[in-house]
Amino acid sequence: MIDTHTHLDSSKFSDDIDEVINRALSVGVTSMYLPNVDDESLARMNSLQERYPNHIELMLGLHPCDVKGDWKKILDRYDKLWEENPTAFIAVGEVGLDLYWDKTNIDEQIQALNHQLDWCVKYAKPFSMHVRDAWEPTLKILRERNCPELNGVLHCFTGSIEIAREIIDMGHYLGIGGVATFKNSNVVNVLSDIGFDRIVLETDSPYLAPVPHRGKRNESSYLQNITMFLSDKLGYSEEYIDEVTSDNAKLIFQR
Ligand SMILES: [Zn+2]
């Protein structure tokens, strides 16, 4: 299994990160992809990758909730990191739009997103994209920029079947995680319609732990709870789900 979106650099793991990673490895999670959110996360991510070079891959991007007054300076610095060593990162992330916490800076969020999507095209990297209360402006950008050179994962996908279909038609993938196991979630309906051909799995640790861990700290080993739940609800074997979603992850993230 591949956890395509996990914030293992979070301070929530600072006391027991080695146990967390070993638990993930012991249940069959072979790779964990870490999105960057801000400047502080990058140093911690680098040290984790040094210690687990065969299991941890890094992304570089500025999270929409961290698009603050200094966003241009941060992106200037990230421009240089991409230029210096494009192979250090497997994807552009975590990028996107979030109008749940702050609507006032939507113009800056859109500018930052477009700047970072340029990296995808320039360096041939997929994106890992966060969308919260922002489907309309996100789809507008994806439609306008739709081309074979731009593709990625809509992480923590919770949209409608129609949105799922449109995103897949544009060549992108959907990241499915713990939210699928929540009672009021529409994710199982979406998956029963579209199948697993364009699905990758993720935990988004330490957030959004799946049932039966809901409300607690999430971790990459809980990927098996997500697989078990989906297998039970949708009638595919766990092996099938593991295999298809891992193959999809390797394809989109070029591993
Ligand atoms: Zn995230």
Describe it.
With 255 residues, the chain is an alpha/beta fold. It has a single domain (2-252), classed as Alpha-Beta Barrel (TIM Barrel). It contains nine helices and eight strands. It has helices at residues 17-26, 39-51, 71-84, 106-123, 135-144, 161-169, 187-194, 223-234, 238-252, and strands at 2-3, 31-34, 56-60, 91-98, 127-132, 152-154, 173-176, 199-201. Helix 3 runs parallel beside helix 4. The radius of gyration is 17 Å and the shape is globular. Bound molecules: zinc ion.
Topology, please?
Layout: E1 2-3, H1 17-26, E2 31-34, H2 39-51, E3 56-60, H3 71-84, E4 91-98, H4 106-123, E5 127-132, H5 135-144, E6 152-154, H6 161-169, E7 173-176, H7 187-194, E8 199-201, H8 223-234, H9 238-252
Parallel strand pairs: 1-2, 2-3, 3-4, 4-5, 5-6, 6-7, 7-8
Number of helices: 9
| Biggest beta-sheet profile | 8 strands, parallel
Derived structural class: alpha/beta
Report the mean per-residue pLDDT as an integer: 97
Strand content: 5-15%
The total strand number stands at 8
Question: Any ligands, ions or cofactors bound here, and which?
Answer: zinc ion
Please identify, by name, the CATH architecture. Alpha-Beta Barrel
CATH superfamily: Metal-dependent hydrolases
- What's the CATH C level? Alpha Beta
Helix content: 40-55%
Oligomeric status: single chain
Helix and strand sequence: EHEHEHEHEHEHEHEHH
